[in-house]
Amino acid sequence: MRRAILFVLLVIALASLAACGQAPGGAGPSQPGSNPAAGVPLASGPAGDLMVTLYTNPAQPNPGQVSFEAAITDATGSPVSDATVTFDLNMTNMNHGKNVVTATPSGNGRYSGDVFLMMPGPWRVIVGVDRAGKQADVRLDFMVR
Asked: Mind listing the domains of the chain with CATH numbers?
């Protein structure tokens, strides 16, 4: 339980740094072309008893093709590598129809996929996690410039 609380506090601290545009260590946000996992999280939140942290490449999404990477951990902070993960995208202020991508496992609790963001504005991704027949979703909002 203590590890789970510490993990949640770490995620909150990283999210606070992301809001300031700083990566841990003051290095600034990740640059386009860098590894999304090495950058600042775009958003994070709980999906049932799991924690989902979403990274993008580029770090600040623009319209067009964007790489998403979800890092998923369980309540103890251990990576979850036995799930099926989807990214269901839409704008929060207008419907663009069905836009779902099934992520590819990349090891150590990470799942990646390329998504297409049609235009600037407020977006939401519903990260769906299916693990052992149990479905959990987290809704994460972000801006596209």
From this structure: 2-144 (2.60.40.1930)
Residue 108 near residue 60, CB atoms below 8 Å: no
pLDDT tens digit string along 7-48?
444 444 444 433 433 333 333 333 333 344 446 799 999 999
Q: What angle do CA 78, 115, 139 make, to 5 degrees?
A: 55
**Secondary structure letter of residue 31 according to DSSP:** P
- Whether cis (ω within 30° of 0) applies to the bond prior to 58 is yes
Task: Please report the beta strands in the chain, taking only residues with DSSP state E, as ranges in sequence order.
Answer: 43-47, 50-57, 64-73, 84-91, 100-102, 104-107, 110-117, 121-131, 134-144
